[in-house]
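User: Hi! I'm working on a homework problem where we have to compare a predicted structure to a textbook description. Could you give me the structure for the chain below?
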Amino acid sequence: MRFPSHRVWSCLHATRRRHGARTVFPLLLACLWAVSAPPGHAADRPVRILALGDSLTAGYGLAHADGFVPRLQAALDARGDAITILDGGVSGDTSTDALARLDWALGDNPDAVIVELGGNDGLRGLDPARMEQNLTTILDRLQQAHLPVLLSGMYAPPNMGAGYSQSFRAVFERLSHRPGILWDPFFLDGVAAHPELEQADHIHPNPAGVAVIVARMVPLVERLARRP
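Assistant: Happy to help. Predicted structure tokens:
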């Protein structure tokens, strides 16, 4: 990480005048932290990351403690990360539904956003072009709000046919190339098509499957929290 040196020294100069030269070293550390914290993020509170998603985020079919958000939070806490995950998952949500509630979901003033959507669009065979329009609008509005984004991709169910699956997947491939996007190719990577990691519906992860997802996502979430 590169620090803006002029801001560090300006901070240090101001604090030396108030507190004296004997406290230069601890004040320098404080100044380094202050200028490296994400914009809009106070240095005395954790980075707040909204998980905007559907039933995969909401932990459908699982005890609350076994859901994606609680398990991700527990993993980050165990690593000593000053990160709070805000649960914005609603079971059954399509990209249209998530767009409609975006303003409400942002009401907790997150510093960054994980976007996990598209699964229900695929299950219902909805038009991939409409999904792309919705996701593009969501990403545009997050960009306008200066919120870093981790976009997690999705595949359509294979029974929808090869043509639909290709069009569906191409949406995420295009969105992954947006400037500034942190990209996770497939939210269910390592879980889909592994019955021992799935619930009986062969769609949603069981607790062991959630553990696989969380293990993969933790480094990405840490990178997201460090993004300006």
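For your comparison, note the following. Strands lie at 47-53, 83-89, 112-116, 149-152, 182-184. The longest strand covers residues 47-53. Good luck with the assignment!
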